# Entry
Amino acid sequence: MNTPPLPSRRKLLAWTAATAAASTLPPRAGSASAASAPIALKKGDVVLFQGDSITDAGRDRKTQDQANNPAALGRGYPFHIGGQLLAEHAGLKLKVYNRGISGHKVPDLDARWQADTIDLKPAVLSILIGVNDIWHKLNGRYDGTPQIYREGFAALLKRTTDALPDVKLVICEPFVLRCGAVNDTWFPEFEERRGHAKEVAAAAGAIWVPFQEMFDQAVAAGTEPAYWAGDGVHPTHAGHALMAEAWRKAAGI
Amino acid sequence: MNTPPLPSRRKLLAWTAATAAASTLPPRAGSASAASAPIALKKGDVVLFQGDSITDAGRDRKTQDQANNPAALGRGYPFHIGGQLLAEHAGLKLKVYNRGISGHKVPDLDARWQADTIDLKPAVLSILIGVNDIWHKLNGRYDGTPQIYREGFAALLKRTTDALPDVKLVICEPFVLRCGAVNDTWFPEFEERRGHAKEVAAAAGAIWVPFQEMFDQAVAAGTEPAYWAGDGVHPTHAGHALMAEAWRKAAGI
# Structure
């Protein structure tokens, strides 16, 4: 176990409790309140996963326009969730897409948002973004501060709900495991950024998927961090499957 | 709906009921009774998936020796099951492998059984085999009768339990959907072969996964066959995820 005790551990809620709290969060006045209602899937709904390499998970770009194509969904949590939703809601003829792209940060999503998100008219839009916003800053390839992450993420969600007022937003908590490429230089800034993501999600009336709490709890239960993400950032097969379970619990579908 | 009523429909049990019945089947006197006990996973257990293209599901051969490698598990039911077991039994450090190979029949499994199965020392061995044994016969590439399928399958299982007396066998029911490449020429021989598989599994004290009943029930509930397997043989993303649920329910893990 190479995980020193973290101050944030003491604040840990079981992720199930956090999930329950987030999913019952009242919408803020003036926010996109439609997005905070429980998800009720309808026939033909598009379910879209957006994000970086964690979402991308080796997906086949050539078939990305084919809904429900296994290769196009990658080998991560969108593959698991997509299959389960398609199996359990067969009558709805859902269309599941993955448009995560490795290395992307909030501004990269913004640059391709019209074609890769809004034009697909998702009924359910899942977003996991933020780890590269800090990682690329730590290694000198980017200079965006936590405040720039917060403002850019909030603007992206406003742009989304302006264009798609009925979209159900599912915002996934950025997370890291304390191993591999993740060392002390990531903290406390990473925690600050996680806080921003959660507040931005709440302001948008989004469902919140507490991935960091989930992984923290899994490690606290005795599994070493690398079991869930060898390099601290990219989940293993076990990690992605656990994420899928948490996502479905939070989204309620 | 292009599915004419089948005689076998009238005999359909809900697959959950069939599963419950199969998993409580008493071992036959003199059979490998150890395999019929409920599965109790132990630390370091190897879980191995064997079969044809349905199991293979586009897996990466180059990484097949790496346990739990997502690419090596393909894009089908072994990927789903493997991820879920790894996530939910993290403390056990399971090792999941997929060695399904497209186009294989019972004699093809037999030819590579030592290196691809016995040498891996699986604690849990899942086998789905039989569709090519009839398909290749129908298209003139093979001349094995249903009786040859039965005898070959039984011999393969005996060889397995002789070498691995503690292995837990999970035998999956061969299945087809009534669409694509599957037409009336497949019947009633395919049903005869399914019957052989079930009897061979019972004789070996194996757990039985009733995939045909499951898909028949899903189609009877109103979803067209192609939703589950476009060509009638190879499951879609939805089909594989449904198989994973049925497998886990039958195996009890």
